[in-house]
Amino acid sequence: MSASDLILDAGAPATRARVRVPATSANLGCGFDSLGMALTLYNEFLFEAAPQLSFEGCEARFANDHHLAYTTWRRTLRSLADESRGSAALCDPAKVHLSCASQVPLSGGLGSSSTCIVAGIVAAYAMAGVALAREELLERATRAEGHPDNVAPASLGGLTCSFIAPEGQVVSLENPVDKRWRFVALSPAYEVRTSEARRVLPPSVPLEDAVWCLGRCQGTIRALETGDGALLRAACTDRLHEPYRKTLIPDYEPLKELALRLGAAAFWISGSGSTMIAACLDEQTAADLCEAVRQLSPTVAAHILMADNQGVILCER
């Protein structure tokens, strides 16, 4: 195993681990359940040995032993202990303080659950003193999340195309994103539940719609890699999920029209929503769009982001 295959090296068991995980945008229009991209918006989690289980920095409804970052950390530690790897048994899951510094909105389509899952796994390995390979992180995170489209870019950074092979292993192809891109994340004040976003999808689609998205998926990847705005505008048009999910987002049509009129190359629903992404090729277009959104829809939060090409980081242990 080479150093480039590792998320973190083996080390001495630790009593703390601080992990930073980027937000992600999945689907990117036509890449339904396969494309994902890491963004420069972050959740940071600090796990520390403590006299008792306690939480800080999260909403009261999540400050308990059902917190997804905590349950993932606890489950991973137990798995490592069962496998007799490292010193996982030295970490008492009932005696930890979890501190959260969150920028990623909950249920907003920016991968908040994936940040919890990836952070919990990385922190468990770090505190147990066990080396963590990229492939292993992807496998564990995908099992926990159920699909890899968000956990892959959260783990690896950049733009990823991911799927689960027939044998069960997770395959993720990584692509760096051109630094000229600016991604304006437009987040309404309301949530769209993933379960509802799945419910509105049809059980089957016409063959022509599936063919429509296949070629455009590769075009979207190439455009984001190379900074080709004209190609992204041509390719980033979906027929599999956005025609149905946009009905759950009242702001979708007016914000899409505004973004494209002001010069955005493309516009898509991030994950299952409610956040939407406008892809712009320069800072000024992104800034003009943010100002226009504030005037048109004051309750919609607008953030100018870039692609995060690094992925999860262990800040300290």
Automatic annotation (TrEMBL):
Domain called GHMP kinase N-terminal: residue spans: 85-158
Family matches, as Pfam families: GHMP_kinases_C, GHMP_kinases_N
Gene Ontology biological process terms from the UniProt entry: threonine biosynthetic process
Catalytically driven reaction(s): L-homoserine + ATP = O-phospho-L-homoserine + ADP + H(+)
Positions of the GHMP kinase C-terminal domain: 221-295
Keywords of this entry: Amino-acid biosynthesis, ATP-binding, Cytoplasm, Kinase, Nucleotide-binding, Threonine biosynthesis, Transferase
Keyword Membrane annotated: no
Top-rank taxon, per record: Bacteria
GO MF, one example: homoserine kinase activity
Record pathway: Amino-acid biosynthesis; L-threonine biosynthesis; L-threonine from L-aspartate: step 4/5
One GO term describing the cellular component: cytoplasm
InterPro entries linked to this entry: GHMP_kinase_C_dom (IPR013750), GHMP_kinase_C_sf (IPR036554), GHMP_kinase_N_dom (IPR006204), GHMP_knse_ATP-bd_CS (IPR006203), Homoserine_kinase (IPR000870), Ribosomal_Su5_D2-typ_SF (IPR020568), Ribsml_uS5_D2-typ_fold_subgr (IPR014721)
Gene3D superfamilies per UniProt: 3.30.230.10, GHMP kinase, C-terminal domain
Localization: Cytoplasm
Predominant subcellular localization, coarse grouping: cytoplasm
Binding site for ATP: P105, L106, S107, G108, G109, L110, G111, S112, S113, S114, T115
Enzyme Commission number(s) of this protein: 2.7.1.39
Signal sequence region: none
Purpose of the protein: Catalyzes the ATP-dependent phosphorylation of L-homoserine to L-homoserine phosphate.
PANTHER family reported in the protein's UniProt record: HOMOSERINE KINASE, HOMOSERINE/4-DIPHOSPHOCYTIDYL-2-C-METHYL-D-ERYTHRITOL KINASE
Family as reported in the entry's similarity comment: Belongs to the GHMP kinase family. Homoserine kinase subfamily.
Name of the protein described by the UniProt record: Homoserine kinase
